[in-house]
Design goal:
With 174 residues, the chain is an alpha+beta fold. It has five helices and five strands.
Length: 174
């Protein structure tokens, strides 16, 4: 989707308004157009500002974190399925399936004895489905570590502890 240049729209609107001049039906049309378009331009500016303020910041390490999680998953028998990642080549045989939408992470689990049956739709049936609201990649990875899907090495707490131990303390400068 291309970005609409609101300044250009306002500039063209003002130019059109000046070019028509006073009186006549064209002037009335230009005035009506200006009355309708200017509030729309203002509203779009306000919506853009609100959206920018609400959007979670993308950290520079998110891409590397996604790559590390994918590498771990592939190396540990996880497969990309029609609905997300599963710990078996066919989702029907999986005991854990992870999928997501824009702001939630879903982890479906069931016992090995239940594997091989179709995953039920809806609330009843085999296994359990847990929902976790997440707004960023780091948050999603931390949730998956906390519920035992991903290893601790991928968590932000682990990385922070590792960074803290790698930073020289006051005694190191002596």
């Amino acid at each position: 989707m291309t970005e609409v240049n609101l300044d250009a729209i306002e500039s063209e609107l003002a130019r059109y308004d000046r070019a028509i001049g006073p009186g006549g039906e064209k002037a009335w049309s230009a005035g009506l157009l200006a009355q309708c378009v200017r509030p729309l331009v203002d509203e779009v500016r306000q919506l853009r500002a609100a959206l920018a303020a609400a959007a979670p910041a993308v950290e520079p390490t998110d891409r590397q974190l996604l790559i590390a999680a994918r590498r771990w998953a592939l190396a540990n028998g996880w497969h990309l399925t029609w609905s997300g990642w599963a710990n078996a080549p066919i989702e029907r045989d999986a005991t854990t399936v992870v999928h997501w939408d824009e702001d939630e992470l879903f982890v479906r689990r069931r016992t090995a004895a239940e594997a091989g049956a179709s995953w039920p739709l809806g609330l009843g049936g085999l296994g359990r489905r847990d929902r976790y609201p997440v707004r960023a990649v780091r948050e999603a990875v931390d949730v998956l570590v906390a519920v035992g899907v991903l290893p601790a090495e991928l968590s932000s707490a682990y990385r922070a502890a590792l960074a803290a131990t790698a930073t020289p303390g006051p005694a190191a400068g002596r």
